[in-house]
Task: inverse folding
């Protein structure tokens, strides 16, 4: 049911279902990333730790288990507790930001970041050597000859989410579903249209003068028409009088 003018009687916000779907997508993406990360870490620790590296694709992909005390890609190995606090801060920031989420691309982006951050945070909180100082399990090594740092699924999700965030910000996509470039373009277009309409419309004085002139012209035309009609009637009357005089004579 709706009130007059089409307003919903319930007072529901039409943006809420959209936001709920986007938040649900964020949770799904984060859950998938977290599950893949934790399952893969469990399997490599159980079957590959303390074993020789497993070559999956010669020269391109090797699985080798290491314990990382630093950040992603083994950066800052002596600052474990600091990175734990940073990870907690990132998780809290993403959760708070999700309250404004109405963008599909941003839902995927934040889901990648959240899943990766929570995946590595779980290691830091629960793995050895101590709570909140645990070492993250890394096991993916690409192109070993390049000595590229070993990483895990969570690291990959964080990097992909970061790249997507930069791209979306560059293209003007906002978390609330709007796009900054379109807003600016539509705003300038509206201003230009208003200026053109203002330039095309005559001023108030000009409009009044034109109306007055047109009214005066119509009045003169009506007076002339009445004068011609009266003259024709007088001529007909005079002609009738002459006709009667001739008949009487």
Result:
């Amino acid at each position: 049911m709706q009130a007059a003018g089409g307003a919903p009687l319930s007072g529901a916000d039409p943006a809420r279902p959209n936001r709920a779907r986007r938040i649900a997508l964020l949770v799904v993406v984060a859950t998938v990333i977290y599950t893949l990360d934790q399952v893969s870490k469990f399997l490599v620790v159980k079957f590959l730790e303390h074993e020789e590296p497993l070559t999956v694709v010669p020269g391109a992909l090797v699985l080798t288990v290491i314990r990382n005390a630093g950040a992603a890609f083994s950066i800052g190995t002596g600052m474990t507790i600091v990175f734990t606090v940073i990870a907690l801060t990132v998780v809290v920031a993403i959760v708070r930001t999700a309250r404004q989420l109405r963008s599909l691309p941003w839902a995927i982006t934040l889901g990648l970041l959240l899943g990766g951050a929570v995946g590595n945070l779980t290691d830091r909180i629960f793995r050895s050597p101590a709570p909140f100082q645990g070492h993250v399990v890394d096991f993916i090594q690409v192109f070993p000859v390049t000595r590229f740092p070993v990483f895990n699924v969570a690291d990959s999700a964080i990097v992909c989410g970061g790249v997507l965030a930069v791209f979306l910000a560059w293209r003007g996509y906002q978390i609330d579903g709007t796009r900054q470039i379109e807003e600016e373009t539509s705003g300038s277009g509206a201003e230009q249209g208003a200026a053109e309409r203002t330039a095309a419309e005559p001023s108030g004085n000009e409009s009044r003068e034109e109306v007055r002139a047109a009214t005066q012209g119509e009045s003169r035309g009506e007076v002339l028409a009445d004068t011609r009609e009266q003259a024709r009637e007088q001529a007909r009357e005079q002609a009738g009088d002459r006709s009667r005089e001739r008949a009487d004579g």
Summary: Confidence is low (pLDDT under 50) at residues 1-10. Residues 60 and 207 are 79 Å apart (CA to CA).
